[in-house]
């Protein structure tokens, strides 16, 4: 008599079988988490599409580097925004916070002549204070985040105009510009490409492979379904090829951008927090079922407060990166950044109702937005058309989320 454990593990023992079973395994692997796999397939498809439409210009080393530098602050905002959305909230103020924190940094460094790092610290402190302000009204007063952050969007935009006296302020010292425009290269000698960049990405691929293997081993020990070995190996190989191709483009341009190192640290840190800490699980619990989370002992008010403190901090980081990139502070900085960050989170798999989403998915969503914007710019498409396309992509992403939930419910 076949036990449940044997029935569960039977597909795992099958090394591939016939061509029909192989296709079945592949289909099941892709549809098991359709939302996640769809994000990455869409990203790859967009990269290939624009490479064809631009005659390969979108994949040139210089353009790849430019995408990293130009859209890095949106990636930072997307990390914070997906956490807010997972908890069932929204933050409409991040663009204004970017503007205000960059203005505070500029005033500190340019107007008052303090060291560049003093401007960074001042911006971070302002971001934390703004996050605490939002967190207080949302968590302890009970005003919906939509209203609180809408008020914050107006409040902090006005404060930006007041701080800058309605004029732009520039330039920053050269050290400040390294944050968003600096590169690490030449550490291992020159061969026509930067060896250090390739080494860093190769270590990253090895780390990814080891982590995936450990995850697979753990799932098997708990008799949970895992993809067949050939598909697992194919996934590792595909990721390795894509990552090293990206690394090669950077290595043949100007090397490893400093801001990319910062982004990698943020992505790994927040992925760890959301997936492997009590605080991360509490955020998912609050977004999934607020009443159940409260009854299970989750300190909902405290968690919500720190979610917005974190969003304020990451908005300040984005403000620092943006001001470093533009070498100054402008009253209109950060305009519409909140919509880009929200779109990135939803495109990356976050659910409108909360409780669902991943940091890596939000980053992938932000990269989709970046690749679309960059590709359409290279093609000379009008800005109005670009806005229409972005709006349609966001609408389709949310529609896909709703369809996927209905599909899962029907099963």
UniProtKB/TrEMBL annotation:
Residues 1-21 are annotated as: Disordered. InterPro entries: ABC_transp_permease. The keyword Protein biosynthesis does not apply. It is a multi-pass membrane protein. One of its GO terms (molecular function) is transmembrane transporter activity. One of its GO terms (cellular component) is plasma membrane. The keyword Cell inner membrane applies. It comes from the Bacteria. The chain crosses the membrane at residues 37-56, 68-87, 92-110, 116-136, 143-164, 191-210, 230-250, 256-273, 303-322, 342-372. Residues 1-11 have a biased composition (Polar residues). Its main location: membrane. This is Xylose transport system permease protein XylH. It comes from Crystallibacter crystallopoietes.
């Amino acid at each position: 008599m076949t036990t449940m454990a044997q029935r569960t593990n039977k597909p795992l023992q099958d090394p591939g079988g016939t061509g029909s079973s192989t296709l079945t395994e592949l289909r099941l692997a892709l549809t098991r988490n359709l939302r996640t796999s769809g994000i990455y397939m869409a990203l790859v498809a967009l990269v290939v599409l624009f490479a064809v439409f631009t005659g390969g210009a979108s994949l040139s080393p210089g353009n790849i580097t430019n995408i990293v530098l130009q859209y890095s602050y949106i990636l930072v905002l997307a990390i914070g925004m997906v956490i807010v959305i997972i908890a069932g909230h929204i933050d409409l103020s991040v663009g204004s916070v970017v503007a205000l924190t960059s203005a505070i940094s500029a005033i500190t460094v340019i107007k008052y002549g303090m060291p560049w790092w003093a401007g960074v610290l001042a911006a971070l402190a302002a971001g934390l204070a703004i996050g605490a302000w939002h967190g207080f009204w949302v968590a302890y007063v009970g005003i919906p985040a939509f209203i609180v952050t809408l008020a914050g969007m107006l409040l902090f935009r006005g404060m930006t105009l007041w701080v800058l006296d309605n004029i732009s302020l520039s330039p920053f010292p050269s050290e400040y510009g390294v944050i968003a425009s600096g590169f690490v290269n030449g550490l291992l000698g020159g061969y026509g490409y930067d060896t250090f960049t390739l080494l860093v990405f190769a270590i990253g691929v090895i780390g990814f492979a080891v982590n995936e293997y450990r995850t697979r081993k753990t799932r098997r020990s708990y008799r949970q379904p895992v993809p067949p070995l050939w598909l697992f190996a194919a996934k590792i190989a595909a990721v390795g090829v894509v990552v090293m191709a990206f690394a090669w483009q950077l290595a043949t341009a100007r090397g490893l951008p400093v801001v990319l190192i910062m982004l990698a640290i943020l992505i790994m840190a927040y992925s760890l927090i959301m997936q492997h800490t009590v605080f991360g699980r509490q955020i998912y619990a609050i977004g999934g079922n607020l009443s159940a989370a409260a009854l299970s002992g989750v300190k909902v008010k405290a968690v919500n407060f720190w979610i917005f403190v974190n969003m304020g901090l990451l908005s300040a980081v984005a403000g620092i990166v943006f001001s470093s990139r533009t070498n100054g502070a402008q009253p209109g900085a950060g305009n519409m950044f909140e919509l880009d960050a929200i779109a990135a989170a939803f495109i990356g798999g976050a659910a409108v109702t909360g409780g669902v989403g991943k940091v890596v998915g939000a980053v992938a969503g932000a990269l989709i937005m970046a690749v679309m914007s960059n590709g359409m710019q290279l093609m000379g498409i009008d800005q109005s058309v670009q806005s229409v396309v972005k709006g349609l992509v966001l609408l389709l992403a949310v529609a896909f989320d709703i369809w996927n939930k209905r599909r899962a419910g029907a099963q």
